[in-house]
Amino acid sequence: MKILLLTTVIVATSYIGYSQQDDGLNITGNIESIFQYLNEDPLIDATQPDSKALINSYMNVFVTYKNFKAGMRMESYLPRIQGYPNRFDGTGLGMRYVGYTNDWVDVTIGSIYEQFGSGMALRTYEDRSLGYDNFLDGARIILRPYKGVTIKGVYGKQRLSFEEGKIVHADGIVRGIDGEVNLNSVIPNFEKSKFKVTLGGSFVSKYQKDNRQDLILPENVGVYGGRIDLRYKRFNLGGEYVVKGQDPSSDNAYIYNYGHAALINFGYSQKGLGIILSAKSVDNMSYRSDRDKDLQDVFINYLPAMNKTHTYNLVATLYPYATQPVGEIAYQAEVLYTIKRKTPLGGKYGMTLNGNFSIAYRPNQNTNGINPNDSSRVTYTSGPFDMSDSLYWRDINFSIYKKFSKKFNLKVSYFNIVLNNDVAKVTGNAHGLIKSNIGVIAAGYKINKKHSVRVELQGLFIEDDDYGNINDNGNWATAVIEYSISPGWFISIIDQYNYGNSNVNNRTHYLYGTFGYIKDATRITLGYGRQRAGLFCVGGVCRFVPASNGLTLSFTQSF
User: Fold this and answer.
1) What is the DSSP letter of 340?
2) How far is it, in rounded angstroms, from Cα 316 to Cα 123?
3) What angle is formed at CA 483 by the lines to CA 482 and CA 488, rounded to 5 degrees?
4) Please, which of 64, 169, 288, 396 could form a disulfide with 157 given CB 3.0 to 4.6 Å?
5) Measured distance CA(525)–CA(122) in Å, rounded
């Protein structure tokens, strides 16, 4: 780590020294700092930490000069913001790399972010809002030996945590190779064809020492698969299928079943119309570089979410759905249609309609012919898209957006969401299916060239409210108002109210105000108020955020 840091500093210093003479130098990066001062609030079970104040800070610096590249990220948790992994602590170097690239080869040593295909075999990435970072520390090489041909190889250990200002790695070692071929570039006379074909394949292996006395654990576990992408004019069709070897882990109760995953995407687009159809089948595809870890720790692969990413407060935070790596069969369909201007429905500015449907079921895990006392520990059989009738998730939603004038626009949305709380648990005492209907009205009005206002009204209504006295039981309402003064000032107030809670004492207002200023690439935001406990999810990956009451000051800067 010290050698890489020293190399990065030397390279960056050298680049700066030559910056006035050579236009090949490029330095970019960003800074982010979030400070909180929290109060105790027994009504919402918010606690005050011993330190009273919390702070997360990050700074990325990326340097390229001709064929050379280097990067680093400093991180500081003094202590960490609530909801982030409790292993995040201290100040130090959280990511660093150096590398060289040209038209034929790209070599990186250090912290590596990489994805093979859709990520079902391998994906390392960072999402700071989730407190998620699973990069590989090691080496990566990318070869482009021929036009349209790309070969990747990676080798390293994953970042597990950040303790006392130092990176801590998972026990296992990850190795992988991926190849992709664009047939239009490789095959003569096919380059100008309107029919585009890309083929790819991946193999990833992890090594972890057998640390159990009661079981014989496979120390090397591989995932392999292939993918295809077809495009013709406005149509595209893509598919990927991967198989995982026997991988006993804490996720699957140390069984010896093989795993498999399939992903199919179809799309059509033209001016004013877009259609997306997707399907996913996953069984026993939890794949970590440490078999004993849980939650979001050291996943080697990523299983794309098969449900729409919502942004409205009640829809996104109250009953979100997390992808089930142990197994799920899911489908999604979405249509976006724009009614043309100067038509009876479109009016002067047109109108946009959006409809989305997603659903997920438990795979059909067939135990016929399986001896539960068999020493093989293979407990069931299951094939691709072999679906049971056990519902995990269903989401039906649509929205209408219309601009009525240069100053006024309106968006109306409806969401019907069913969540199986026994599988994707989001609340403490509810059992079975939670059924909710959510309506949202969002309106924007431009007062003049500098002043504008935006208002949201949201309501969530539970269909079957028989889960007992729980804090987030029953119906909810949310109101949001945002006022902007161009070019940089803004203020917003949000009130989330649990008016339908069966316990009258828990019918709480979660009132939160935000004030901020933006100038060029600098953003400063000050917020104060209550925030509800719950899950925060991005792309099917979630982290729990505890209830809080207090002040939050954030600063971001890009350069």
Assistant:
1) P
2) 24
3) 115
4) 169
5) 36
How far is residue 113's CA from residue 325's CA, in Å, rounded to a whole number?
21
- What DSSP assignment string belongs to 385-418? T-EEEEEEEEEEEEEEEEE-SSSEEEEEEEEEEE
Q: What is the pTM (predicted TM-score) of this model? A: 0.90
Tokens in use for 466?
A: 């028989």
The answer, yes or no, to whether residue 546 has pLDDT greater than 80, is: yes
CB 322 within 8 A of CB 306: no
- Which amino acid is present at 303? L
Neighbours of 80 (CB within 10 A): 21
3 state SS for 143-199: EEEECCEEEEEEEEEEEEEEECCEEEECCCEEEEEEEEEEHHHHCCCCCCCCEEEEE
Q: Which residues contact 153 (CB under 8 A, 6 or more apart)?
A: 140, 141, 142, 176, 177, 178
Long-range contact set of residues 533-537: C-beta below 8 Å, sequence gap at least 24: 533/44, 533/45, 533/471, 534/317, 534/318, 534/426, 534/472, 535/317, 535/320, 535/322, 535/426, 536/83, 536/129, 536/130, 536/317, 536/320, 537/316, 537/320, 537/321, 537/322
Contact 516, 483 (CB under 8 A): no
Two structure tokens written together for 21: 């003479």
Contact by Cβ (8 Å): 198, 228 = yes
Q: How far apart are CA 336 and CA 351, in angstroms?
A: 11
C-alpha–C-alpha distance, residues 18 and 25, integer Å:
8
Residue-level pLDDT at 529 = 96
My answer on whether omega of the bond before 546 falls inside 30° of 0, hence cis, is no
Over residues 300-350, the pLDDT tens digits come to 999 999 999 899 999 988 888 888 888 999 999 999 999 999 999 899 999
Contact indicator for 300, 206 with CB cutoff of 8 Å: yes
CB of 455 closer than 8 Å to CB of 480: yes
